[in-house]
Amino acid sequence: MIKAEGLNLVFQTNDGPVHALKDVDLGIDKGEFVSFIGPSGCGKTTLLRCIAALEEPTGGSLTVNGMSPDEARRNRAYGYVFQAAGLYPWRTIAGNIKLPLEIMGFLRSEQEKRVNNVLQLVDLEGFGKKYPWQLSGGMQQRASIARALAFDADLLLMDEPFGALDEIVRDHLNEQLLQLWARTDKTIAFVTHSIPEAVYLSTKIVVMSPRPGRITDIIDSPLPKERPLDIRDTPEFLAVAHRVREGLRAGHAYDD
Amino acid sequence: MRSAVPILTVVAVILGLWYLAVGPMNFRLALDAATRGGEAVTPATPDEQSETGLIRLMLDNPDVLPAAYAFERPRLPQPQDVVVEIYDNTVGLARGCEWQGWGAESDNWTGLSDGCLRVIENRRSLIYHAWKTLAPTLVGFAIGTGLGILLAVGIVYNRTMDLSVMPWAIASQTIPILAIAPMIIVVMNAMGIQGLLPKSLISSYLSFFPVVVGMVKGLRSPGSMDLDLLRTYSASRPQEFWKLRLPSSLPYLFASLKIGIAAALVGTIVAELPTGARFGLGARLLSGSYYGQTVQIWAALIMAAVCAAGLVWLIGAIEKRTLTRLGLVR
Question: Which of B229, B239, B243 lies closest to A86 in CB terms?
């Protein structure tokens, strides 16, 4: 579904060129849940933004659904979830979810139907008429996921969506996200800096390192698709977590 | 009602300071009158008096102080004189105002007697003059706001305008409005345009600027994440404007409108001053100063202040309603 070969991205800054991504090779298949993990500056968010055509790679090739990222975006290939919910305060929750639908020109009746569908998917039925400030942080982030799901993109790009939430809420949302993924058959690319989160969620974990931003390890998770929260105490889980940590260490991510 | 206490406190303090100032401000006039009236004052001659400090004079002639408060054409009138002047020239004009009922018996179609209309039609009426100032203010404010929003949109969306318009907008505000007002009146008069529109243009000249500044800031207020979100939907620029930038800018716009409408009122009054206008609060200020009628000046000033407060309050009410409906205030 996503294919990157020899992908490079160099930012020109006042302090000289910064190699944000260096020779990234990666394939993501349909239905996978892929996490990108690494310290800040390793290019995980940049890679996600390249897939979303929010950044332009300076070298190599990148295709999304066999198209260029730009074409894929115009074909509504993905929904993007940012670190903050980013709901418009002057729109209700339902109004916020309608935003992409209005822009993409869905019929009004169709909009209503879709809003109800996705509100149900993220367990926010009955909250459509509320304003964002009336919801907790976790609920707001769920609403923003609903907004990304509303127009039926097969791919969900998530950039540290739960990074700003406390751990208890985050555990709960992780569990719900897995259920959502199982129900909807989406492909999910998920940026995080939490090892347990990455291991708990993913079928594939991409470990990255900074200076230059690159992939140091790709781990196919041996964990079953069915994952209760207490799977995090099993030896299999800890083994994968250990390998992720090793990968981060190999990339000198723990230096300085 | 909670807000009434601090407001009344400030009003009381201002009135107190005003009363205190009346004596010293009118003292020399009162002393002059007393000297000419043959009363015993120290020092005795006007020449000596003018060389003596005010405090010295007041200490030496405490008997004159009551006269300073009872002066007929004072340099600084007392607050109640101004209140009486305002009353006489507003509701006080309405003598013989009564409801005569609908039909042939009444003086005119409204059913109110002609006495009532004096309040708004009389040349002495402050309400008449206030309306002559308010109408061009509102038109000028509308022109200024429209122009300000258009310029702001241009500045935000067009790089050339971004670089070129703002310096000129700032420069425009450094030119004294008093210098420009007569020229606008003369030029427009030559073009056969008189009355409300020239005043409105001068008023819009002052009111467009805060709108430009606030609106540019407001239209640029969405963060990069908000803009990226719309890019992921491949939103067009008009969609970006209507769905994100415009709603984000509304709180900034309303703050600017409050400044703008007060500036528009000032602009209209200033436009009335150098042009010999016969109607309007500015005309009242001007004729008051010609004839040394300080009470008339103060009455017009307070009327102008009341108008400005009313206009700002009106914008505030619209702001509250709009932002509540948009869910931007809780």
Answer: B229
Instruction: Map tokens 């932002």 to a residue.
Output: B323
**Beta strands A59-64 and A78-81: pairing type?**
unpaired
What is the domain partition of chain B in residue ranges? 4-76, 123-325
Q: Per CATH, is A1-77+155-256 categorized as 2.30.30.30?
A: no
How close B226 gets to chain A, by Cα (Å)? 7
C-alpha to C-alpha distances, A89 to A95, B160, B246, B329, nearest whole angstrom: 10, 32, 13, 9
Provide the residue ranges of all domains of chain A, joining segments of one domain with +: 1-77+155-256, 85-152
What residues contact residue A167 under an 8 Å CB cut-off, 6+ apart? none
pLDDT of residue B262: 94
- Token digits for A132? 């964002």
Residues 6+ apart with CB under 8 A from B27: B54, B57, B58, B64, B65, B68
Nearest residue in chain B measured CA to CA from A134: B330
Q: Does B329 touch chain A if contact means CB atoms closer than 8 Å? A: no
- At residue B172, φ and ψ (nearest 5 deg) are -60, -30
Average pLDDT, chain A: 89
Residue of A nearest to B227 (CA): A86
Give the integer Cα–Cα distance in Å for B140 and B146: 10
As a whole number of angstroms, the distance between CA B68 and CA B60 comes to 14
CA distance A177 to chain B (A): 21
**What pLDDT, in 10s, does the model give residues A2-24?**
888 888 898 888 888 888 888 88
ipTM of the complex: 0.89
Q: How far is CA B322 from CA A109, A252, B243, in A?
A: 27, 54, 16
Of A74, A86, A90, the CB nearest to B327: A90
Domain B123-325 adopts which CATH fold?
MetI-like fold (1.10.3720)
**CB proximity B229 to A under 8 Å:** yes
pTM over 0.90: no
What is the mean predicted confidence (pLDDT) over B263-288? 86
Q: At what angle do helices A167-184 and A108-121 cross, to 10 degrees?
A: 120
Q: Is B238 at the interface with chain A, CB within 8 A?
A: no
- pLDDT, tens digit, 9 for 90 and up, residues A89-115: 999 999 999 999 999 999 999 999 999
For residues A28 and A198, what is the distance between their CA atoms, to the nearest angstrom?
16
B153 min Cα distance to partner chain A (Å) = 21
